[in-house]
Amino acid sequence: MKGFYRLLNIQFASMLPVLLILTAGMLLTPYMLLQSEVAHLNETSMHPRFESLYYTSGCKTALYVFIAAFCVYFLVKQYNAYWGSKSIYTYLTLPVKREAYYWSNLLSFIIGLLLLLAAHLVAIRWGYSAVVDHIGSYADGKFVMHNGLFLAFIRSNFLKLILPWSISGWFASISVFLTAAIGLYYAFLCERSRRHWFIIFVFAAGLIMRHIVNAQISAPSSDWTIAKLYTYSIILLIMSGFFVWHSIRLIRKGVIS
Q1: Average pLDDT, the chain
Q2: Do the beta carbons of residue 227 and residue 215 sit within 8 Å?
Q3: Which of 41, 50, 150, 186 has its CB surrounded by the most CB atoms within 10 Å?
Q4: Closest C-alpha to 241, from 197, 190, 201, 194
Q5: Residues with Cβ < 8 Å from 190, sequence gap 6 or more?
Q6: How far is the C-alpha of 214 from the C-alpha of 166, rounded, in Å?
Q7: What is the pLDDT of residues 12-48, one digit of tens each?
Q8: 123, 28 Cβ separation under 8 angstroms
Q9: CA 195 – CA 186 distance, rounded (Å)
């Protein structure tokens, strides 16, 4: 376990500078976008709901951009272990179980994604304060919607993907999140080990994830049932388990080197 913790600390510390920059960007960008979006509002304007401001200001796009940037950075970092520092050959010869290398990489990646999502939630709260401050600055604040942030998360199906309000929602969001993180790393390991056709399973998981996300966003008009949601989420978790098992098997056999 000591070897695993050391590897985890090394892997996470190596990506921390870039992660801090992306986290800072995730915190500041939605705030500035929302502040810019409400700058033109006055007491004669039609005041949109906060979730509408969230969409039209580009906060949703900013979330995608920063997460995609971190995923690209993670992949570049993994490839650099082969083409740059060639540290992969050192890691695989350390006196620790080879799966410790896998778990340290995967967990540091997951922790980074969780930090970005947490930063986005903080940014939403911060941006909401900016919106309230601006609207409250005229007409004695009579246009301020009390509990507007809470109502936004209730009304917006996309925001409920980030912060679910039900057990089924949590189950679906967690299954999509884990499968996306595990599947991305698994696809990299398959490419490095020349097991390219296994990447088809990652694409299949991606289609299921897209199906779940689209169904969740279109609810309640979707004809999906809770049983369907749980079924597809369980399939994703089973596929994630396979990705983990096969990834560890590839690393143990040393075929990724």
Answers
A1: 85
A2: no
A3: 186
A4: 201
A5: 196, 198, 199, 202, 250
A6: 17
A7: 888 999 999 999 999 999 889 988 888 787 777 777 8
A8: yes
A9: 10
